[in-house]
Each structure stands twice: as C-alpha cells, then as structure tokens.
Amino acid sequence: MLNSPPLARRVLDALPMTIWSVDLDGRITATNRSWSQFAFENGAPGLAEESAVLGRSVFESVADGESRSQIERAMTLLRTHRVRVVRWEFPCSSPDEERVFLMQVTALREGSEVSGFVFCTVDITQSHRSREALINTGIALAEAIALDQVYEEVALQLRRAVPSTGFVIALADDETAEFCISHQQGYAESSPTVPSLAHRLRRTWLEALATGHVVRAHSAVGLEITAPLLSSEGVLGAITLCAEPIESAQMLEEAERVLSVIAAQTAVAIERAWLVRRVEQKRRLEAIGEVAAGIAHELRNPLFGISSAAQLLRFRAREDPVVEKNVGRILREVERLNRMVTSLLEFGRPNAAHLISADPERVWDEILEGERARLDAKRLELRRSRSSPSVRCFLDAEQLGQVFRNILANACDAAPEGSQLTLASQLSPSGGWRCRLNNGGPSIALDVLPHVFEFFYSTKSGGTGIGLALCQRIMEEHGGTIGIESVPESGTTLTLTLPPAPAS
Questions:
Q1: Residue 138 contacts by C-beta under 8 Å, 6 or more apart in sequence?
Q2: CA-CA distances (angstroms) from residue 279 to 135, 180, 275, 285, 401?
Q3: How far from the centroid of its chain's Cα atoms is residue 247's Cα?
C-alpha cells in the first residue's frame, strides 16, 4: 500500500470516463488511466501512457480543424470567465459501430485566475441513439403510407433505440376484440408445448390498453416491456419488446419512454396507412364504376334494337316453330344482358346515399318479409337472433336493403334444399352493429375466396360478378365492412358491420 497512488488518483483512474488537464497553452499536464483504455476500446491508434504524453500539446492529437477550433473557443470562453463550463457532442466511430461522446471542459483556477483546463469525455451513445431514433421514427413514419413500410421502420428504430432480443406488434380487431400479431422479430415461434405468443401476452396487452401506460413483465424469455398502441380513430394494439439486461432504473425508464413515444407514432402511422388503403380502394371502385357506366350506356340502345327486331320477327314468322325457338333464345339473351346493363348502371352511377339514424334490423325485417317466397321455394328454415340492445346506425334503408337482398339470395342459392340459414346480429365491441349470415352449403374454394368481391368475378352460372362488388361499395359508403369466410365444416358466412351512429 505504501507504493500505491493517492486515493484521489485511484478514484480518477477508476472513473468510466476520460479526464485530462492542460495548461493555458494546451500542453497536457495530467490524464487518468482511462485515456489509453478509451482509445483501445474505440479503435483509435494506441496511445502512450500518461508519462509519455505529459507536456505534449493536446492539439497534436486533434486531426480536424473543426475540433481544434472548438477546443480553442472553449479555452477562450473559460479563460475570459464568460462561461463556467463548455459542452459539445462529437462522434467517434469504433471498428464495430458509431459512437457518440460528450465533451465537457471546465477551468482550473488558482484564486481568481485560470491556470489551466480540465477535459472530460463520457460515452453517451445509448442516449444519443434513443433521441435519434425518436426523431428518425417521427420523420420516417410521417412519410410511410403502407403498413409494410411502417413495420419496417419501427423495427429499424427499435433495434437502434432499445437493446432488445425481439419485439412484436399486435393489433386488436375492433369487432371481436381479439389480438392478431401483425409483425414480429426475434421471438421464437411457438411450439405445441408452449402457449402461442399472442395467448401468452394477451393479458399484458389488455393491461397496457386499459391503463394507457407502459407495462413491465418478467417472463421466461426475460424482461418484456409493453406499450399501448392507441389512436383517436380506432387503432388498438400494443408493442412488446424483450429487453436485454438494463443496467439501472434510470435507463429502464428511458427505454420505456422511448418505446412509449415510438408506439404513439406507430399508431398514428398505422391509422394513416389504413386511411390511404381505403381511399385507394374507393378510387379504384369509382374508376371501375365509370367504365361500367360507359359500357352500359353503349349497350343499352343496341340491345333495345335487337329486342325490337326479334319481337317483330317473332310476329311475322309466328307459324314457323324453328324461328320461334331461335327468337326465344335471342330474347332470353337480351333479357340477361339487360339485367347486366342495369347492374352496371347501378354500380357505375349509384344514387347518393341518404343516411339517417335507424336500426338495421328493421331493414332486415322488410327484406325477409319480401323474400319469404325464395326461402319457401327451397324449404329453408331461417334462424334469426337480433342484437340486444338494438343498435342505431346511419344508413340508407334502400341501399342497405339491396345488400341484404343480394347476400340472402346468394345464401339461398348455396344452401342445400331443406337446410337451415342462420342470421345473427349483435352489438360489436366498438358499439356498432355486426351481422353474420351463414349457410351450410359447400364451402367456396380457397383460390376463389379472395376474389369474390372483385368486379366481374363470378363462378355462378349466369352470374354477372357485379352483385358482391356492389355490396362492398355500398357497405364502404356506409363506413362499414363486408367479409366472407368459408370452411367445409360450417359452410359460408357473410359478415356485415356498420359503425354506431354518434350520440346526439
């Protein structure tokens, strides 16, 4: 112990930062042992021990003019007592990564006179990354208009901001309140003996959404931090990341703040991506509608002429059974084409919806009464359950009735004779109206299912491929949705949703 350096010196050497002092001319007068270690860890050329650098000018190790000017300016400010401390950040890349340091310079004083300067350098890479990630995330997500872009950018910035081994983004279905994982990285896939990730994290996600705050949880994979995804227009979900060991409570709180801000930015970006997708879909349907209306207009007059000529021919050759037979075929085809023209016009030039607050169940009442003959013709039994309490939505009864009539006709066509249809309505978790119409007929082929709402797509004999496309357009104009599921076990189910009418 007799040969040990003084305690003050040992304390300086133990500090996780570089400290050195210079005289008024910039000659090095002392350094702590972190000087060499600092250089070694950051890929700088090997620096000599303190004894070898004492007396050398600090400017000898400053390569660029900007850094030299900064040091000179700091020394001038301190020497003239204009400031008590000068700070600035500077990058210093190691062989493996870019790192950022904070330089702090203070004056050494003898009485009221400045006799030298003390420089202190500390690594602030992680804090810098967090701050940079928040800025970059905000900029990048403001430009992202597709969900893939959003998830890619969030993944990139999360990796930079919070050391973690994986993360997962889950969104809740506003109709079923079930979570669905939209994106994940780093988490191992579930196995038959391990609960699925969504099942395991569901309680944490619900807690984060219920409180609106970040939730910590320790699991077999480590510390998991979850932030809620909330937006004013209905995005509900959560981001969970599995953090690497965090050194202090302060760093943990910083990681939570960063995750919370990124989650808020992500929710807004997801909402914007949804809006862009809806607008694109609307424009696509409008473009299709304009083309359809144009085609219908061009077909209507020639069809009228063909029909008139065929009827005249039938009148003049009514004694000829062959002509009569062929004229009948012509008129049937003309009638079929006329129905298609009517559908095209309905799709292309729909009447403006007059939305009023009403109960969709009342619309179903009228449609079912009018379509009773269709059900009876196939001896179909309709089992119906209404939403309770009743839901009021903004709707155009005539247009919504057109949707109901269309899907009911399809269900009747698909259902086996003497079977059962199920019509079940309920209040959705978002307060809207949700209705499911199921038939037990053969399931729709998997390669067909994704296309059933496409214009002119039909696998039904005599079908125009316009009906369901028109239904989708009407539902979207009501702010609702239409979806379809089809499995061999339970047949085909059409699901309609409408948002609730705002409370007056």
A1: 265
A2: 28, 24, 6, 10, 25
A3: 32
Backbone torsions φ then ψ of 479, nearest 5 degrees: 80, 15
Task: Please compute, for residue 141, the number of CA atoms within 13 A of its CA located in the half-sphere on the CB side.
Answer: 27
* Residue 11, CA atoms < 13 Å, CB-side half-sphere: 3
CA triplet 332, 453, 407: central angle to 5 degrees? 65
Q: Once rounded to an integer, what is the mean pLDDT over residues 392-418?
A: 92
CB 26 within 8 A of CB 74: no
List, for residues 56-102, the tens digit of each pLDDT value: 888 887 777 888 899 999 999 999 988 999 999 888 766 666 778 89
Give tens-digit pLDDT for 313-361: 888 887 788 888 888 889 988 888 888 788 777 777 667 778 999 999 9
d(CA 445, CA 457): 14
The strand pairing partners of 227, in sequence order, are: 239
Q: Which residues contact 357 (CB under 8 A, 6 or more apart)?
A: 392, 393, 394, 501, 504
**Model pLDDT for residues 205-237, shown as the tens digit of each residue:** 989 988 889 999 888 888 899 999 887 666 678
Instruction: Give residue 202's identity as a one-letter amino acid code.
Output: R
Indicate the burial class of 127 (C-beta count within 10 angstroms; 0-12, 13-18, 19 or more): middle
Would you place residue 386 in the very low, low, confident or very high pLDDT band (cuts 50, 70, 90)?
Answer: very high
Q: How many CB atoms lie within 10 A of CB 340?
A: 20
As a dihedral over the C-alpha atoms of residue 364, residue 365, residue 367, residue 372, rounded to 10 degrees, the angle is 130
Reported as half-sphere exposure (CB side, CA atoms, 13 A), residue 42 has a value of: 21
Three-state DSSP class for 494?
Answer: strand
Q: Which alpha helices (H) appear in 62-124, and where do they start and end?
A: 65-79
Q: Tell whether the model's pLDDT for residue 273 goes beyond 90.
A: no
Helix (H) or strand (E) holding 222: strand 222-230
Tokens matching residue 472: 């989708």
Positive/negative CA dihedral, 460, 464, 469, 473:
negative
The residue among 350, 439, 336, 450 whose CA lies nearest residue 400 is 350
Assigned token pair, 221: 């994979």
State pLDDT tens for residues 147-189.
888 888 888 888 878 888 889 999 887 666 688 888 888 876 5
Q: What is the dihedral of CA 73, 75, 79, 80, to 10 degrees?
A: 10
Note the Cα 330 to chain centre separation in Å: 53
Indicate the DSSP class of residue 27.
B
Q: Is 462 left (phi over 0), alpha (psi -120 to 50) or beta?
A: left
